[in-house]
Design goal:
heterodimer; A: about 325 residues; alpha+beta; 60s Ribosomal Protein L30, Chain: A; 2 domains; seven-stranded mixed sheet; about 30% helix; B: about 775 residues; Alpha-Beta Plaits; DHBP synthase; 23 helices; about 20% strand; binds fe (iii) ion; binds magnesium ion; binds zinc ion
């Protein structure tokens, strides 16, 4: 297949052309024995114990952006979802829905970065599917990924595990992905460079869990941002969460753009960050471990879990007041009079 | 005793008749008219049985409303004939317990002259006692947990009266007969002084506490003072360094500070005051009164720091209202800054421990006392305009007295809860012909604000014994008040959503007892409209049940949403961009040149691509835009700052009679549109020509007023309506308020304005309740 070719409906029809695309384009990139068998599904051994299984679909616009592309996002996203269950992700499936007319060159780039992301995360893409739909039926490409992973014995993390006295750690700066996508999509121009934080977090999770320090909650604050995710945790665990505005890590340029846009970084998406809620006594040790990971250098403790105002997230503001960080409800309408 | 020539009556008096010396008053009056009988407090007010000669009885009845005690307020007298009894005197009997409670709770009242005199008399047993009070004065609402208003239901319950106090309390002829907060230095509350580490520094001597607090104030220290309805942060108003320090520590760079001074203070040399204003400031309600500053030349003096109310035409001044305030001013500086003691964005602190936690980084000392405040009441803020009282904030001294609303015609309103808006909020409960507006609750973005909101609703329901059958709320889904209403809805109460500006209009209709259909000119900041845009510059026609939007300001984008409210320069860019498009970048005016080019370009992209740029017809935002455009105010640090500064900068005399051209067009939906474009160009030309900004600001205000009046008049013509209500926060602008009222009246309109409730969002809850009451009534009528 030539880089300048475009994807045709035939590429997804299951015939000769589809087959050629699989063997010439996909298989070499995702190279692994299980996929190479070309059976209807992947068959593999699993040890006894508990597994985590997660799925997500990716429809990001634009599909290429500073710091990554839709392919990398699709792999990292599912790797991270599995990791947030406390599991070590092993196998991933990929479903591609491609709009007729896509450049083979673009598809190749996406598949390459999927392969790269899988390698980096240490997971294998073992089964998949490709469909091509007429122009306009999807926007360039949609990707679904599912993943399974193995839970180490004794690990038990869940959104309902937060307890008063716990500390809230975030593994790095927030809102990078949200700001990047928004400004790329809308063609906003500014001098500073921002890029997506798309990254696999499974190695970080593994290091934390293997250290033996108890972890109550792990979550990746993707869509809806830190604010929404923490609200979910506060409700699930029936606890209050208190954040300190002066500790929220936001890169300067990201903060600047958020200010101009009038957006709160707390509600913008992240694709390579996790929240760890851990007992206060171990918090600093867990923080040190996270900071040793390549994607956790900027990790900080941003707040604590309390028994006050269960179900609520409260921000202690820079000027010494408090503000309730609400669950995001649709469009943000002006309210100040 | 025979029945010869004797007649008898059972009388029920409702209103504010408890805790205001009403029973002793009746006792004295009955004795003076040679009547026998008895009186007691009841849940609806006071219950009275009197008998005597018919002519004495008649005279007695006539005297009641005539001579009633200062603080009482009679809302209803029901008298029925009764068979005479065998009685030989008049007695006051103990409160009865019944089920319904319709007695009205008095607000807190400034200390009375009799008490003051005693407090200043070295021979009096209450000499310099900061908690002196009597039935004519002192705390009420802030110390009450429930009614009937009796001592065990107040925060005075932890103080047992000494024999001397008890004697006064039990003597019907004493000024302190059943004065629930009655106390003296032997048995009552005491002050004490702490440093900001929480350590007592007064050597356990209350007198020393007062003296030291006053001394520290004179030295320029910041002292947190526990008052009637909350805490104040006090500082010497003549000490510029101290005032600056307070600004710094409180993170309040520009917002005006309220001042407190005795009536004979030099402070009053700095402001203009007419008879009505004098009466208002001296009234026992003791609001903060906005008084116009004199020109600097007229008030050269060292007794006022220059940084008290920058960019403001007025100073906010109140007289001392508690005995403690009097003592503080007597021993301390002549003029005190008394700013509310709260964490930024949160309600007033009322609890000693909370105050220590909240202000230990602000206050150097804490002047506290051990009488608990059960309920917050912020200082009320009022002014006189066109000879009438106008509230900017209706709270201590007024709430929870009801607003009498005799419409819709029938005086039996359903029990409604109006939930208010999102900022400067109050709530409203209705019963019979009364609307009870709560004291100021404030912003609802903090946990404390929301808790106070919930507690206020609960408390008001309890003390007024109102169980709402219907809940009215704003349309904005993000307001906590709306979310709270929704929660009540889930519990089964019917909900009625009322558009923000419809509610503004109805609040003005209600307090003016209007019924039927009227015109409404609403000039406001932010209110969600039925089209999903933000309204605030509208002419409506409305009834209690509904409204029609007949004219509006043209829509402008708000680049950044709420950020466009806190950064008026964004609105200036939006205003210019609508007229000049990309040409804005080349405008040779100081405002545009002051902007960072990349920021400007970014904002333009946001508006082009409609990123977080909701559309608004708000008059408040228009003020912001012009204020920024004229380089008067770029960013704000407090609510309405840009508009307030614009009004202050405007040189009204110079612009007399010269508005910019404006145009009123018609939108696709038939709604008239007040177009900003025709006057933006000449305004920019004026700026380029170097016309002083004071003159341009004045011309802008006149243009706005004229444009609004023209639009309203056109709608009036089309609809044949000649009654018009004015509401919305922009009417706090005195210039625009006077211009618009004057022009409309000259054209023959009957103009109705606010006097009982604020024109801003503090009045919204009343309008909401009125809409719901009307709709509820219609539903019931339909069966
Ligand atoms: Fe409003
Ligand atoms: Mg996901
Ligand atoms: Zn008194
Ligand atoms: Zn006593």
């Amino acid at each position: 297949m030539n880089d300048n070719d475009t994807i045709l409906l035939d590429h997804g029809a299951g015939g000769k052309v589809s087959h050629a695309m699989f063997s010439e384009l996909i298989l070499p990139l995702f190279d692994n024995g299980l996929l190479a068998k070309q059976d209807d599904g992947a068959v593999f051994e699993v040890p006894a114990g508990r597994m985590a299984f997660s799925t997500d679909s990716y429809t990001v616009d634009p599909i290429f952006f500073p710091g990554g592309d839709i392919g990398e996002l699709a792999v990292n996203g599912t790797v991270n979802d599995v990791a947030m269950c406390g599991a070590a992700p092993l196998y991933i499936s990929v479903g591609l829905i491609i709009e007729e007319g896509m450049k083979v060159f673009d598809l190749k780039r996406i598949l390459q970065s999927m392969a790269g992301a899988a390698k980096k995360a240490g997971v294998r893409i073992v089964t998949g599917d490709t469909k091509v739909v007429p122009r306009g039926k999807v926007d360039k490409i949609f990707i679904n990924t599912s993943g399974i992973g193995l839970l180490p014995v004794g690990v038990n993390v869940s959104g309902n595990g937060a307890r008063p006295g716990d500390k809230v750690i975030v593994s790095g700066t927030i809102a990078d992905h949200g700001v990047t996508i928004l400004s790329e999509r809308e063609g906003l121009k500014f001098d500073s460079d921002v890029k997506s934080d798309s990254a696999p977090l499974n190695h970080m999770v593994k290091a934390v869990l293997e250290s033996g320090h108890p972890v109550h909650v792990l979550r990746d604050p993707t869509r809806g941002g830190l604010g929404t995710t923490l609200n979910e945790i506060a409700v699930q665990s029936t606890v209050g969460i208190r954040l300190f505005e002066n500790r929220l890590p936001v890169r300067g340029p990201v903060r600047g753009i958020c200010e101009l846009l009038g957006f709160d970084p707390l509600y913008l998406a992240n694709e390579g960050k996790l929240i760890a809620i851990v007992p206060g006594t171990n918090a600093n040790k867990v923080l040190d471990i996270i900071r040793q990971d390549e994607f956790g250098k900027d990790a900080v403790i941003i707040g604590e879990v309390t028994d006050q105002d269960p179900g609520r997230v409260v921000l202690e503001t820079l000027i010494g007041g408090t503000r309730i960080v609400d669950m995001l409800t649709g469009e943000q309408l002006p309210r100040i009079c | 005793m025979g029945s010869s020539g004797l007649s008898a009556k059972k009388i029920e008096i409702s209103g504010v008749v408890q805790g205001v010396g009403f029973r002793p008053f009746l006792f004295g009056l009955a004795c003076a008219h040679h009547l026998c009988g008895h009186v007691s407090n009841s849940d609806f007010g006071v219950a009275l049985f009197v008998q005597g000669a018919p002519k004495d009885l008649d005279a007695f009845l006539l005297d009641i409303p005539e001579k009633k005690p200062l603080l009482s307020h009679i809302s209803r007298v029901v008298s029925t004939d009764a068979p005479p009894l065998d009685l030989s005197d008049f007695t006051i009997i103990k409160s009865r317990d019944t089920r319904t409670k319709s007695a009205l709770i008095s607000p807190d009242v400034g200390v009375c002259p009799d008490c003051l005199k005693e407090m200043q008399d070295p021979a009096d047993r209450r000499f310099e006692y900061p908690f002196i009070n009597c039935t004519n004065c002192g705390p009420r609402y802030t110390i009450i947990q429930d009614i009937p208003y009796d001592r065990p239901q107040t925060s005075m319950k932890s103080f047992t009266m000494c024999p001397d106090c008890l004697k006064e309390y039990e003597n019907p002829l004493n000024r302190r007969f059943h004065a629930q907060p009655n106390a003296c230095p032997v048995c009552g509350p005491q002050v004490f002084l702490l440093n900001n580490k929480g350590k007592r520094v007064d050597g356990n001597d209350p007198a020393q506490a007062m003296a030291l607090a006053a001394q520290f104030l004179r030295q320029g220290k910041i002292v947190a003072v526990k008052g009637l309805g909350g805490f104040h942060l006090a500082v010497d108003a003549a000490n510029v360094t101290a005032v600056d320090l307070l600004r710094q520590r409180k993170n309040r760079p520009h917002k005006p500070f309220a001042l407190m001074a005795a009536w004979d203070s030099p402070l009053f040399d700095h402001v203009h005051m007419d008879g009505d204003e004098k009466e208002l400031i001296l009234s026992y309600h003791r609001p903060i009164v906005l008084l116009k500053k004199k020109a600097p030349a007229q008030s050269v003096s060292m007794d006022l720091a220059p940084n008290l109310a920058p960019d403001n035409l007025c100073l906010g001044i109140m007289l001392p209202y508690t005995p403690l305030h009097y003592l503080l001013l007597e021993k301390g500086p002549d003029i005190l800054v008394m700013t509310s003691g709260n964490r930024s964005g949160e309600p007033l602190s009322i609890d000693n421990a909370d105050a220590l936690d909240a202000f230990s980084h602000i206050a150097d000392y804490f002047l506290l006392h051990n009488r608990d405040i059960y309920f917050r009441a912020d200082d009320s803020i009022a002014r006189i305009q066109k000879g009438k009282l106008r509230f900017l904030r209706r709270s201590r001294g007024y709430a929870p007295l009801p607003v009498d609303i005799t419409v819709p015609a029938d005086d039996n309103l359903a029990n409604i809860l109006g939930c208010g808006a999102g900022m400067k909020s109050t709530i409203c409960l209705t019963r019979e012909r009364y609307a009870f507006l709560s004291p100021h609750i404030g912003d609802l973005e903090s946990v404390q604000g929301q808790n106070f909101y919930k507690a206020t609703i609960k408390h008001m329901q309890k003390i007024l014994d109102i169980r709402p059958v219907c809940v009215a709320h704003d349309l904005h889904p993000g307001y906590f008040s709306t979310q709270f209403a929704k929660m009540l809805g889930e519990q089964g109460l019917p909900l009625i959503g009322v558009q923000h500006h419809h509610a503004h209009a109805l609040s003005c209709m209600a307090e003016n007892h209007l019924d039927g259909k009227v015109l409404a000119l609403i000039l406001d900041g932010t209110g969600l409209g039925t089209d999903g845009h933000i309204w605030g510059g509208e002419v409506l026609t409305c009834t209690y049940k509904g409204f029609e939007r007949r004219a509006r300001l043209n829509y402008l984008p708000m680049p950044g949403g709420d950020a466009a409210v806190t950064s008026p320069w964004r609105m200036a860019v939006a205003l210019l961009y609508k007229v000049y498009g990309p040409g804005i970048m080349d405008l040779e005016i100081p405002f545009v040149r002051s902007l960072d080019n990349s920021k400007l370009a970014f904002l333009i992209q946001m508006m082009d691509r409609q990123i977080n740029s909701p559309m608004t017809s708000s008059t408040g935002r228009l003020f912001d835009a012009v204020s920024a455009l004229l380089m008067i105010c770029h960013d704000i640090s407090y609510d309405s700052q840009a508009a307030i500064a614009l009004e202050a900068a405007a040189n009204i005399e110079e612009s007399a009679g010269t508005a910019y051209p404006f145009d009123i067009t018609t939108g696709a939906d038939g709604c008239r549109i007040m177009d900003t474009a025709p006057w933006v160009r000449p305004m920019v030309t004026d700026i380029k020509k170097g016309v002083p900004r004071g003159k341009i600001a004045a011309r802008f205000q006149l243009t706005l007023s004229s444009m609004m009046v023209k639009a309203a008049a056109r709608v009036g013509q089309e609809t044949d309506l000649d009654r018009i209500v004015l509401s919305g926060g922009v009417f706090n602008n005195h210039t625009v308020f006077s211009q618009i009222t004057h022009m409309l009246e000259t054209m023959g309109f009957k103009v109705y304005t606010h006097s009982m409730v604020p024109c801003g969002d503090g009045g919204i809850a009343l309008g909401q309740a009125m809409a719901a009451a009307a709709l509820q009534q219609a539903r019931t009528a339909m069966g």
